[in-house]
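re: the backbone from monday

yeah here it is again, tokenized this time
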């Protein structure tokens, strides 16, 4: 019996390791542009609970990095676009590396693998603002990493939007004319330094930006109108987009350059095609392909390092590209799963482990007062509320679009009330609103209760976090003095 139990235990462990072998190589984008971001320590535990071992950041925030210390999670730390000009000065680049990379390079520190130099700096909508300062910044950061003795294990890269290349067919891929010189320099430099090319690919945007785009081509479950490129038939836009980049890299002598997909995902609100059902369909197609190392037609049977975008919804992101920008998370604002999702790529009916220890404000909502004053001016109050909170769910094709005028007003008032941490003055609107403890949510539209805004999480975890910060500070003193 003892031997049987041992064999059973060994077998179960083997299955568990097999299931998590892929999820451990899958990365997540952790954005923090939220009015009430989850405490970093809770997010790190969330990542660990779900077996996620890679994370991509958009800055080098000290609280985030401190929470990642000792976790073993592999990190891509980032330099924002507004710092690229500063990084053209090598001394500034060296200081940045010392402050944001070297300081965490100790046993029990942060497992940094990449430094993202900018984020989509050649995006066409930036009108060339960063075109001439990105490559010098990249060179200086990699040189600073090399001089710090970290260049062999930490590589600098530049996450690019897929609009830097184009082609009538994947085999005809080439870099955009206005950035071709700089892209050639960057690609060749990355190749010389054994660093990867990072690209963000969004099939959803292909659908969003082109009303005539065939919807099935955005997913992975087949299309009746594949794109035929010589002997290759492309049944989805992800493969076609990726291989267009492969072809573009070949034209500049970097055909074998490793490619990381820095962002890929599907939003769940803010547009008629941004739904949980479509997001689930997208991931059910993408993840099995990744777990089986399917690759693409031009790079078949290859592992693709990929970071899903994103981990958590961000209610303070700019909606200039579209209202969907605040709804990319596979988790809601509070770290709760939106739908079933099997990160192992086996498409089992499983749900992600939610964030633990999240503290919420009281179960109080702000709604329109049916007996309110000056109701003829309520439109101005709704506009005010939505200017300073997130009302994207009210838009056309969105989850809360079906409510009547009273429901729209109540939703807007409540979103503002929650953003303002439920202070009494934020639920007045000139006598048009009132608080209630009765949940006004509908079957389709959730009226949010916001989480507690705390710089380092709940009261129970702030004390140990301070202790950890003190210990890190003491280490830095000993290390640098």
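seq for it, each position gets an aa:
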């Amino acid at each position: 019996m003892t031997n049987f139990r041992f064999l059973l235990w060994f077998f179960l462990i083997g299955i568990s390791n097999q299931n998590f072998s892929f999820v451990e190589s899958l990365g997540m984008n952790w954005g923090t542009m939220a009015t009430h971001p989850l405490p970093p320590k809770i997010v790190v535990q969330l990542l660990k609970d779900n077996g996620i071992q890679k994370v991509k950041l958009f800055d080098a925030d000290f609280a985030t990095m401190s929470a990642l210390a000792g976790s073993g999670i592999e990190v891509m730390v980032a330099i924002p676009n507004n710092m690229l000009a500063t990084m053209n000065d090598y001394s500034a680049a060296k200081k940045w590396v010392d402050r944001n990379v070297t300081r965490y390079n100790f046993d029990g520190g942060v497992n940094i693998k990449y430094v993202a130099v900018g984020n989509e700096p050649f995006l066409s909508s930036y009108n060339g603002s960063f075109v001439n300062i990105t490559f010098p910044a990249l060179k200086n950061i990699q040189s600073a990493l090399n001089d710090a003795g970290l260049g062999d294990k930490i590589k600098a890269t530049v996450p690019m939007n897929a609009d830097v290349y184009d082609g009538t067919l994947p085999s005809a891929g080439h870099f955009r004319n206005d950035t071709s010189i700089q892209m050639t320099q960057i690609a060749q430099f990355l190749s010389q330094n054994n660093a990867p090319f990072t690209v963000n690919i969004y099939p959803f945007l292909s659908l969003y930006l082109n009303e005539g785009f065939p919807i099935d081509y955005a997913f992975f479950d087949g299309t009746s109108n594949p794109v035929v490129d010589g002997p290759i038939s492309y049944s989805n836009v992800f493969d076609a987009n990726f291989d267009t980049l492969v072809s573009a890299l070949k034209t500049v002598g970097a055909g074998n350059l490793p490619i990381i997909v820095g962002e890929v995902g599907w939003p769940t609100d803010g547009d008629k095609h941004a739904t949980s059902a479509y997001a689930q369909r997208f991931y059910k197609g993408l993840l099995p392909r990744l777990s089986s190392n399917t690759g693409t037609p031009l790079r078949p049977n290859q592992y693709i390092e990929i970071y899903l975008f994103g981990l958590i919804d961000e209610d303070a992101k700019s909606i200039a590209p579209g209202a969907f920008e605040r709804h990319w998370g596979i988790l809601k604002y509070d770290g709760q799963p939106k739908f079933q999702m099997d990160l192992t790529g086996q498409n089992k009916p499983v749900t992600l482990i939610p964030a633990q220890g999240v503290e919420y404000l009281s179960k109080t909502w702000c709604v329109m007062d049916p007996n309110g004053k000056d109701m003829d001016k309520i439109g101005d109050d709704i506009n005010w509320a939505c200017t300073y909170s997130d009302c994207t769910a009210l838009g056309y094709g969105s989850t809360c679009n079906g409510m009547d005028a009273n429901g729209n007003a109540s939703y807007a008032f409540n979103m503002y009330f929650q953003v303002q941490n439920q202070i009494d003055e934020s639920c007045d609107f000139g006598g048009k609103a009132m608080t209630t403890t009765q949940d006004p949510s509908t079957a389709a539209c959730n009226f949010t209760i916001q989480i507690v805004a705390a710089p380092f999480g709940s009261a129970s975890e702030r004390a140990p976090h301070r202790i950890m910060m003190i210990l890190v500070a003491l280490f830095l003193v000993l290390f640098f003095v």
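The longest strand covers residues 111-117. Confidence is low (pLDDT under 50) at residues 4-21, 456-481.
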